Amino acid sequence: MGFWKGLLLGLTLQLSVGPVFFALLHKAITEGSREALKMTLGVALVDALYIAISFTGIAALLQVKMLQGVILAAGASILVYFGLRYWCKAQTGGKENPARPAEPVPHRGGFGGGSFAYGLKLTAVNPLTVVFWSGTFGALLAAGLLADPGEAVLYAAGCVTATLLFLGLASCFGRFLPLGRSRRATVILDCVVGAVLVIFGGVMLFRLIVLLSC
């Protein structure tokens, strides 16, 4: 039962889409389902890591004001950086380096290191991920719902499976959208995803300002 409960919770939480979802959908549309699925594996691996860390009691550490500020500042800066990279890519007509137009973008995962590594990086630097999972599992542990170690492992496996299913479906769905076939549409997608990442980064900076003012 633990697995299915974790799967249901994970699918419910996945509906609260964030910057990673939009970046993955962009990759599925512009580079195909295969690259998006590689990115999905990277995202799921980071989710699994953060869920494992949640069992160490990190939720309590995240209540420390200074640590919250560091996480928000670092995450916001990196998300804005990724967003600006998308905008720069849009300004060059969908290529990150206009001087080398023949270089195949899909094999570089957009920002180097491949799609799997990109999924790792974008998820790992998003502070919402660790706060999200640590808060969820911290609450479950505090309520005594995961007292049995075996049940906790199954519950966590269900949550990670939910990430694979939800983002895997998004990866396959993006393949059927014709937007990636048009250079103009690709540029618009770059701008939209870049804007989403910058907005999320801006929200985190606002939270940082509120945190520091308290």
Short description:
Helices cover 77% and strands 0% of the residues.
Walk me through what this model shows.
It is built from 9 helices and no strands. It is 77% helix and 0% strand. It has one domain (2-213). The longest helix has 31 residues, at 183-213.
Write down the overall mean pLDDT: 78
Q: How many β-strand runs?
A: 0
Task: Give the count of structural domains.
Answer: 1
Number of helices: 9
- Whole-Å distance between the termini? 43 Å
Provide the gyration radius in Å. Answer: 18 Å
SSE blueprint and pairings:
Blueprint: H1 2-14, H2 19-31, H3 33-54, H4 58-61, H5 65-91, H6 114-124, H7 127-142, H8 149-175, H9 183-213
Helix pairs in contact: 1-8, 2-3, 2-8, 2-9, 3-6, 3-7, 3-8, 5-9
Descriptive keywords:
mainly alpha, 0% strand, 214 residues, single chain
